[in-house]
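Page 47, continued from p. 46.
Same chain as before, 130 aa.
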Amino acid sequence: MTRIDWTELLFSSTGRLGRTGFLGLTTLLLVLAVAFESMTGDRAPGWIGWIFYAALMFCWACILSKRLHDRGNRGWWAFLPVWALWVAWSPPHDLAQVPPFVILAATFMYLGLVPGQRAGNRFGPSLRPA
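Result:
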């Protein structure tokens, strides 16, 4: 049984990550965010929320980068869905907030449904057994 290196998984943008790992880790971060909001509400000082959400966004950027690497894309593209999540976290109040939701939906369809490259690429070896 292999041991999961959570530090490498959540705090490093190098390497590759498959669809299952991407969806599972994204769900985990979303659950953490919802739990934080339900536990603290408006009671937590603002600086605690900034630190907490900055850490979650950094972890999500690392996860996105690895998943993009698995598809053969550069990890820098992760900035777009991270920005979209930051803008879209609150419910939309006007039409200017609709594009971030579209970006997030497209990101999840692309990274969550489309398989990674079968062979190794410049970001690492194949995740599929030979």
